[in-house]
C-alpha cells in the first residue's frame, strides 16, 4: 500500500482562516438551498397540505428504501433568475427496492408545478444522466404543463422530454410515472410515454385538453373526471396500469413495480473499502480563500480515497498536475488533480498518456480542478503549448471511460476544458463553494480589456481616460467575479450541484455506484491525431 503522508496542520492559522472562509460560504449555500426546500412559500405549502397532499420531497422519501441516501441534483437550478430556486422540480438518484433509480418530482407548490425554462434544462439533464448510466426513471407527476408566459422558451425544445422517454424505453431502461394530480396538455405525454403508469383516485387528471379547451374546440360539455380522471383511465382508456386509492398507496405500488423490473447492474458492487486515514473535516481548511495561493491536491486525495492509498504516476514530471491510481468506495479510479494551477506542455502530455492508460484498463477518471489554464508567453508558445494542450483536450474528448469532475478552486480558460468541464460530458460534475469558473480570472480579463483600449487610444493619437479605465476595470472585475461563482453557475446547470467538501467522498461513491449500472469500455484507439 502507498499511503499518502499528510503535512497538514489543522491548528495552523492559515488552515483555520481557510476553514472559516469555507464555513461562511457553506452558510450562504445553506441559505440558498433553503429557498429550494421552501418551494412556493408558506401560503402555497399550506394550501397543498390542506388538500391532503404530500410535498415533492416527502413523496421521494416514502419512495426510497429506508435509511438510504438521496443524491439531489441541480438543487440551485434557476438561481439568480426570475424563477424560484429549484425550478419547481426535484431530481436525483436514490435506491428503490434495491435498485438505483433516477427520480424526478414536480413541486406543485410552485405555480402548480408548471415547467419554466430552467425546469426543462433540469429535466433534460436528469434524462441524460439516466440514459448514460442506465438508471430506471421514476417520474412523480403533478404539473399543469408549461408555464405559459415563458412558452416561447419551452415549447420547441420541450419536446425533447418526450423524445427522451421513448428512447430510454427503446434502450430497455424502464420508465415509471406516478400521477398525483394534474398532468395536462403536453404533460399528458409523460404517463403516455412511460412503461408503467400509476394514477391516484380523485386526484390524477391526465388529458390533452381540459374542459374549457374542449368546450372551445368542440362545444362538448365535460368534467375533469370523465375527461381524464384516474378511474376513467384505469377502466376505460387503459392509460393507467395501476389504480391507487391515495398517495401512499401509489408510492407503495410504484415500489412494487420497481421490485418486478428485473433491472440488473452491469457490475457487482465492490466489497467493503477502508475509509481514508485522515479526517474529512480537514477538507474545509485546504483551499485558500484567495485562489491565487496554491495548495497541494494530495491533501484532498488523502481524505477522499480508500485507506488514503494512492499510487502516483510520473510524480517527478509535469509536477503541476498530479496523476495516479486509487480506489474510492471500492471502485478503481484514475485521478488528475491540478497542483499549482498552470498547465504546461509537460503536464498536458502527462495527462494525455494517463488518460490513454485509464482507457486501456477500463478505469473511470476523476478530475479535481484548480487551474488557471494553459501557460502563455513566447517561450511556451515556441515550446508547443498549443499542440500539447490540444493533445490533452483530444484525449479527454475521445476517452470513453466514465469521467467525474469536482471543481475545488479555479477552473479557468481552456484548462477547464482539458480537465473535463461541462462541455466534455462528464457523467457528473460538482463544485465546492470555493470554486470559480470563467474564461479567465476577473483581474486578468479586466486588465486585457484595459490594455486593448489603451492601445486603441494610442493608435488613434488620443489621450487615454485613466479615470474611465479605472471605472471600467472595477465594473468588469465585479461582473466577472459574480458570474464565476458556483451558485451563479449551478443556477444555470453548468454543474450538478454545489456540495460540502466533507461530503465529496460520499457523493462520488454514489456517482460511481450509479455509473457501474451501465457497461462501459475504454477507447483502445479512436483518439484524434495527436500533433507531435
TrEMBL record:
CoA carboxyltransferase C-terminal domain residues: 275-517
Entries under Gene3D superfamilies matching the protein: 2-enoyl-CoA Hydratase, Chain A, domain 1 (3.90.226.10)
Record-annotated CoA carboxyltransferase N-terminal domain positions: 22-273
Organism superkingdom: Bacteria
GO MF annotations in UniProt: ligase activity
InterPro entries, alphabetized: AcCoA_carboxyl_beta (IPR034733), ClpP/crotonase-like_dom_sf (IPR029045), COA_CT_C (IPR011763), COA_CT_N (IPR011762), MCCB/AccD1-like (IPR045190)
UniProt name for this protein: Acyl-CoA carboxylase subunit beta
Amino acid at each position: 500500500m502507498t499511503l499518502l503522508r499528510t503535512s497538514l496542520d489543522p491548528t495552523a492559522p492559515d488552515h483555520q482562516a481557510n476553514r472559516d472562509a469555507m464555513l461562511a460560504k457553506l452558510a450562504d449555500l445553506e441559505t440558498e438551498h433553503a429557498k429550494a426546500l421552501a418551494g412556493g412559500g408558506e401560503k402555497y405549502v399550506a394550501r397543498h397540505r390542506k388538500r391532503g397532499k404530500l410535498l415533492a420531497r416527502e413523496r421521494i422519501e416514502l419512495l426510497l428504501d429506508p435509511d438510504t441516501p438521496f443524491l439531489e441534483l441541480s438543487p440551485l437550478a434557476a438561481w439568480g433568475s426570475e424563477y424560484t430556486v429549484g425550478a419547481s422540480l426535484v431530481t436525483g438518484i436514490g435506491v428503490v427496492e434495491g435498485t438505483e433509480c433516477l427520480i424526478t418530482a414536480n413541486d406543485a407548490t410552485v405555480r402548480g408545478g408548471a415547467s419554466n425554462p430552467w425546469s426543462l434544462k433540469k429535466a433534460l439533464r436528469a434524462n441524460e444522466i439516466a440514459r448514460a448510466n442506465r438508471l430506471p426513471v421514476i417520474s412523480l407527476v403533478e404539473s399543469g404543463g408549461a408555464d405559459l408566459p415563458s412558452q416561447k422558451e419551452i415549447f420547441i425544445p420541450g419536446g425533447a422530454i418526450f423524445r427522451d422517454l421513448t428512447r430510454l424505453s427503446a434502450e430497455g431502461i424502464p420508465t415509471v410515472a406516478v400521477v398525483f394530480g394534474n398532468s395536462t396538455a403536453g404533460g399528458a405525454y409523460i404517463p403516455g410515454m412511460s412503461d408503467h403508469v400509476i394514477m391516484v383516485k380523485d386526484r390524477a387528471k391526465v388529458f390533452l385538453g381540459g374542459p374549457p379547451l374542449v368546450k372551445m374546440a368542440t362545444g362538448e360539455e365535460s368534467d375533469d373526471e370523465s375527461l381524464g380522471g384516474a378511474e376513467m383511465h384505469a377502466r376505460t382508456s387503459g392509460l393507467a396500469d395501476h389504480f391507487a386509492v391515495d398517495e401512499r398507496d401509489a408510492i407503495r405500488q410504484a415500489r412494487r413495480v420497481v421490485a418486478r423490473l428485473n433491472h440488473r447492474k452491469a457490475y457487482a458492487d465492490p466489497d467493503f473499502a477502508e475509509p481514508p486515514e485522515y479526517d474529512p473535516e480537514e477538507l474545509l481548511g485546504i483551499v485558500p480563500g484567495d485562489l491565487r495561493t496554491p495548495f497541494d491536491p494530495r491533501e484532498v486525495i488523502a481524505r477522499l480515497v480508500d485507506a488514503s492509498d494512492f499510487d502516483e504516476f510520473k510524480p517527478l514530471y509535469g509536477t503541476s498536475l498530479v496523476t495516479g491510481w486509487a480506489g474510492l468506495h471500492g471502485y478503481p479510479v484514475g485521478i488528475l488533480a491540478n497542483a499549482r494551477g498552470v498547465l504546461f506542455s509537460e503536464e498536458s502530455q502527462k495527462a494525455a498518456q494517463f488518460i490513454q492508460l485509464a482507457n486501456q484498463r477500463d478505469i473511470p477518471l476523476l478530475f479535481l480542478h484548480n487551474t488557471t489554464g494553459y501557460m502563455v508567453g513566447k517561450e511556451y508558445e515556441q515550446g508547443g503549448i498549443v499542440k500539447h494542450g490540444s493533445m490533452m483536450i483530444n484525449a479527454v474528448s475521445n476517452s470513453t471511460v466514465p469521467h467525474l469532475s469536482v471543481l475545488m478552486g479555479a477552473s479557468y480558460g481552456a484548462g477547464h476544458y482539458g480537465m473535463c468541464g461541462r462541455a466534455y460530458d462528464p457523467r457528473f460534475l460538482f463544485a465546492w463553494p470555493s470554486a470559480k469558473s470563467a474564461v479567465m480570472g476577473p483581474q486578468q480579463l479586466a486588465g486585457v480589456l484595459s490594455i486593448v483600449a489603451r492601445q486603441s487610444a494610442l493608435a488613434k493619437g488620443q489621450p487615454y481616460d485613466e479615470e474611465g479605465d479605472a471605472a471600467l476595470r472595477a465594473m468588469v472585475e465585479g461582473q466577472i467575479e459574480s458570474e464565476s461563482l458556483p451558485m451563479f453557475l449551478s443556477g444555470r446547470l453548468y454543474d450538478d450541484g454545489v456540495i460540502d467538501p466533507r461530503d465529496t467522498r460520499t457523493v462520488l461513491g454514489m456517482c460511481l455506484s450509479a455509473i457501474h449500472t451501465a457497461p462501459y469500455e475504454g477507447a483502445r484507439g479512436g483518439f484524434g491525431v495527436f500533433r507531435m
